[in-house]
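Lab notebook page, bench 4
Experiment: in silico fold of construct C2
Operator: M.H.
Input chain length: 107 residues
Purpose: comparison with the prior construct
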Amino acid sequence: MAITLTESAARHVSRFIEKRGKGLGLRLGVRTTGCSGMAYKLEYADQPAPEDHQFQSHGVTVFVDPKSLAYIDGTELDFVREGLNEGFKFNNPNVKSECGCGESFNV
């Protein structure tokens, strides 16, 4: 069981936490929504929840709740720049299908 970040994603998260002035790491999870059933939720974590799983990747702590981990175990989070756009990209080996807009997925 593991969640990892690429070096690019870890640098981006670390810089943002530093600018923010607080934070222990990144909280990654899923929520039920969208045309395919689930969507990722991503936020900065100021404190862990007692039930969180914690993963270290390139110096960044990633917090994941137990319910979400079943859907995102093995995921690598990347931060990419494509033309004028930039953002996080989820490389989730559990995904069976994604909606056309790319906002939701199914496992």
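Observations: The chain has a mean pLDDT of 89. The chain is about 20% helix and 45% strand.
Next step: discuss at group meeting.
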